[in-house]
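chain below, 246 aa
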Amino acid sequence: MKYKVIVLISVVTSMIMLNSCTSCSKSGRTKIIAMAKREASKKNTVPEPNTIIKDVVPKIVDIKDVVTPKEEEGINNELIKSKIPPAEGNLIQVEGLVLKEVNELTIRLKTNQSQINQILAMNEYVRENWHYIFDPKTGHDTWRSAEATLSLKYRGQYSGDCDDFAILMASFARQIGLRSRMVGGYDENSGHAFAEFLIPNEELSNQLLFNSDSRTDYSGKWLSLDWFKGKDHNRYTHNIKVYEDI
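prediction:
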């Protein structure tokens, strides 16, 4: 929203300049109009496809790779103080910072005891507070553990690309007792990652799930926790690879 305000101000400023530019040349007025159009066309920072690279082994980034020893000590002390056990898992994780974040979010969002209510509310919140950042140019696809992504929060904003978002969402779902996984989907040369969780049989008729993107396999019905919806999501559900034990 803040970004949109900045863009709007820029556009308005440009139009004021245009209206007051009585002595501007024709080419000068053209440049001002072009600048206003460019500013108006800019979008918020959102996840994009092309974050999963086919047939390339990803580089795994753990929390130890992104925090200093002193910061790690502070995190561990805070977890002990909060009576939270160390994280379990490599990328999709439970306990540790994941439990701490889930506890805080479910309280802040005032969710009820329903798993469905909790995961959908957290998914929406994180999506609305996500700042998309591309992987570094190293020739590798970089996958961050859930704890690594949480340790990089800045002013309440999460950051990373689509696989980081997917891993975090799968971790949140697993933390509240849902079976979850990350899926890598491909549309020709375009790759994209998203999380999904297995809907418990007793929740299949839950109205909160109506009109949501889902897939069905031998295990049951999986609900998407993707950033993309509808056709933007479905284009990545035909040629997939499932990552559950990561």
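The chain has eight helices and nine strands. The longest helix spans residues 2-20.
thats it, cya
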